[in-house]
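Now produce a polypeptide, keeping tokens residue-aligned:
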Amino acid sequence: MARPRPEEFDKKKVVAENRRARYDYAVQDKYEAGIALTGTEVKSLRFGEGSIGESYAEVKDEEVWLINANIPEFSHGNRFNHEPKRPRKLLLNQRQIAKLHGAVAREGMTLVPLSIYFNGRGRAKVELALAKGRKAPDKREYQKEKDWKREQGRLLRQHG
């Protein structure tokens, strides 16, 4: 069997994205975590359904859980369909879990899911961020900085 090339793993199909998270939080570290799903949840995600806008993650009993993520019931599912907002276990190494737990407990940081996607191998993954909440003045400063970078890009395209 031929060994897969690394570029095959880079492909990903984003299913759900939390765009507001980058505005509300200052992202410091990002982690890629597997997610434990049932069959009908995977099928719903493959159809592009699901949202993580109001979801968060928490460390409980040396495990990380994705809370309040909405994956709607599969349309062709029968009595084995899943509960849409059930807590879902995230799959990380023990060392990563310990680091996340320490940051959340000591430094007052938050675990925010940025996106759910399928990687090159077809596995469902969650991009998890260790972030600190922004207050209103910080949000305004972030918006100004973002607008200035956009304006810089425009100016460079016009005059470059």
Observations:
- The domain at 11-134 is CATH 2.40.280.10 (Small Protein B; Chain: A;).
